[in-house]
Amino acid sequence: MYTKYQIALQYSPEMDKNSVLAVRRLRIRIDRCTDLRRILVLTGSKRYNKKFTSQQVRLIYHYLGKPPFPCDDSTLFDNYILQENDYNLIKYNLEQNN
Q1: What pLDDT was estimated at residue 2?
Q2: How many whole angstroms separate alpha carbon 96 and alpha carbon 77?
Q3: Strand partners, 3
Q4: In Å, how far are 38, 81, 82, 89 from 85, measured between CA atoms?
Q5: Please, where are the H alpha helices in the chain?
Q6: What's this model's pTM, rounded to 2 decimal places?
Q7: Most buried one in 21, 29, 56, 92, CB count within 10 A?
Q8: What is the full per-residue pLDDT of the chain (98 aa) written as tens digits?
């Protein structure tokens, strides 16, 4: 699990002094991608949660693309690349739960 701030900094490293604004900017990007927002909600993501699950991180990377500034753990993105089969399975499972 990764904090929302850790993921937010990958997309907006200039916000390293202001965690609230970094997370807010990430939330705006997620909200603009309605498919991502819907799937994150179905996986249990809530605005007040402080962390993303590994599944949620994979979904974020899938929809928003590779962050321009990966965190110190350079393997983070590579470890969470969402394979097309994984994506289809997640989407199918989420749709079955509705």
Answers
A1: 87
A2: 28
A3: 51
A4: 19, 11, 8, 6
A5: 4-11, 19-32, 34-42, 54-64, 75-79, 84-96
A6: 0.73
A7: 56
A8: 889 999 998 888 888 788 889 999 999 999 999 989 998 998 899 888 999 998 898 889 889 988 876 555 545 555 555 555 666 666 666 676 65
Could you tell me which of 9, 33, 30 has the C-alpha nearest to residue 21? 9
* Other C-beta atoms lying within 10 Å of the C-beta of residue 60: 27
Give me the pLDDT at residue 97, please. Answer: 63
Q: Tell me the β-bridge partners of 7.
A: none
Distance CA 80, CA 59 (A): 9
Amino acid at 32: R
Residue type, 31: D
Among candidates 42, 77, 82, which has minimal Cα distance to 63?
A: 82
Distant-in-sequence, close-in-space partners of 19: CB < 8 Å, separation ≥ 6: 5, 8
